[in-house]
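ok trying this again, last paste got cut off
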Amino acid sequence: MSEKEAPVRKSLFSNVPPFLNYLPNGKSGDDACSSQTHLDTMVDIRESLWRVPAALNMMVNQEEAMRSRKDKGCKVRDSTVSLPKAFMREKNSTKRKNLFRPRTVLIEDDVLPSTVSTEGFFTQQHDDPNKFMEDHILVKIAPVPSCQQIARKDYLWNYYKQMLVKHGRDHFNFLSESMNLPKDRQELEDRMRSEPGTLWIVKPPGKNNGSGIHVINHVDEIPKTEEDICIQRYIVNPYLIKRCKFDLRIYVLVTSLDPLRIYLYDDGLVRFSVNEYTLDPEQIKDNQIHVCNFDVNKSSEKFLPNNNPLEPEGHKWTLTALWKYMSSEVANETCLSLFQMWEKVEELVIKSLLCGLTSIKKELMPGTKKELKSTYNFYKIFGYDILLDSKRNPHLIEINSRPAALNDKLDAFVNRPMVSEMFKIVGYHIPQNTLSTIDKRKITCSKLNIPDESYQLGFNPTLYSTVMDDAGIKKQKQYLRQIFGRETYLDQILSNLTANDVKVLIKHLEEHSQMNKFSKIFPTSKTHKYFKFFDYLPYYDKLLDAFEESFGSNMQAGIEYVEEYCRKNVHN
C-alpha cells in the first residue's frame, strides 16, 4: 500500500457511501495516515475484519470522551498512573492472543489520560459483536458457513467423488483416491492386498500442522481405530527441486456464493521437506521425506530458514521465488509451462469449490440459522495446499478454512499486503454510530481527513439487503434456475435492471476496482464453461455471466452503464 493512500476512497458510483481503505493512526486532518501497528493487527484479525470499522468507532468515542472532559475543565494526568487493582475498570488486563486490549484506568471527574494508545482501538470485549450488529442492520459478524464440506479431508472426498461419478475423470482428476475409515476399512484392506507395496498416506481429517500424517504400505498398518480418518493414495511422482519434495500454499478469497465470486492471490508459500525424496520402503516412516508441512520439518537440523522473500533459498520460499527458480530451469517439454500450470491451479480451485457449493448454500437459505439477509461483511479466505507432480500437474492436498498467517519475514511478505488488499476488496464503510451526532461526525471526518459534507458518509443497510421488491421477484421468475442455455439470458438480462441487480453489480465492480495481486477467477467471460458442474444455475450467476460477456474487456463501459441506474438511485 502506498504511504500516501487516503484512509477513505469514494465509491465508483453515485448514491453509494465511501469505503475505508484502512484504520488510520488516530491523528487528525493531514496527519491522518496508515499505521503499521494497525496493518499488523489486521492480519491477526483477518477472519474478523468487521473489527476494523468497530475500531474506528472506538477511536471516535475515545476522542469524544476526551473532548467532553476537557470542556468540563478536567485535569490531564498521565495514563500510566499507578492505581490499586480494585480501582481498575478492567480487572483482567492481560492481552488476548493476537488482539490488543486497551490499557484502562478509573477516570475520575477531574482526571483523564493525556494520550490514547492506538493499540486500544482494537478491543475484544464480550459485547463487541452485538454492538457491531446493532450499528449494522441485518449484518452478521460471521455470515459464511464453516465450509466443512470442502475443508474436512473426508467430507471433501465424499463431495468430490459425487462429481467424479457424475462428470468423469477427464474433469475431476486433481484429488487422489481416498478411503474414509471406519466406513471404508474393508475396501481399503482389499485394495492394499490386491496392490501390494502401494503407498497410502494417513490423514486425520480434523487436524492440522501435519499432526498424525504418516505413510503406510501394508494392510497391518491401517490404524485400528473407530475415529474418522482419511487415507489417500500417495502421489509417488512429485516434482522435485534439489531432489526434495515440496508443496504450495496458495490463498483463495470468496466474497459471495450467490453469485459465486472467487479471487486467487498471485503469491503464496512453498514448503520443502528437508530430506531427499526416496520411495525406499525402509524410509517411508520418515515424515521429513514425505510430508512438506513446515511444522514437521522446521525441527530438523537440516532445516535452513529463508530471510529473503524474493530468492529461492532455504526450505521455505514464496511463490515469487519459485517462479524465479522454475523460469531458470532447463525447459522440459514433458512439463506444463508456468502459465499452463497456473491455469490448472485456477481450474482446481473453481472445481473444488463447486464440489461443496450446493450444500454450503443450503445453510444460508431462508429459515436456517445462518439465513443470509445482508451481503455485507461476507467473505472467506481459504488456504489451498497443492502438490505438483513430475509434469507440474497440480493435485489438491487439502483446503484450510482458517489458514495461518505467521509473523516471520517470509510469511509477512505474503500475508501483510494480502490482508490489506482483502480488506479493500470485501469493502467496509464508516459505521453510522460514528456519524450519529454533530460532534462525532466532525471527529470522524477529522480522523479520516475528509470534508464534513452533507452527503451520506456511513453504512447503508439497503445497499446490501437481500430482500427483493416486486420488480425483482417478477424478473427473476423469467429466468428459471433449471435452464442453463446462455441464449435464454445473455441478450436481455441486463436490460431494465432492478434494484437488486444494481446492488449485485455495484458490489461486483467495487471489488474488481480494488484488485492488485488478487485476480478474479470466477466469474469471467470464460467461466461459463463451468456451469455444467452446477446443480442449478442461479439468477445472479446468469446476470454476472452476461455482464462479463458484455463488459469483461471494457469494465469502464460497465461502470458507466451501472452508473446510469445509480444516478437515478434505483438501488436505494
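PB: full thing came through this time. Confidence is low (pLDDT under 50) at residues 78-118.
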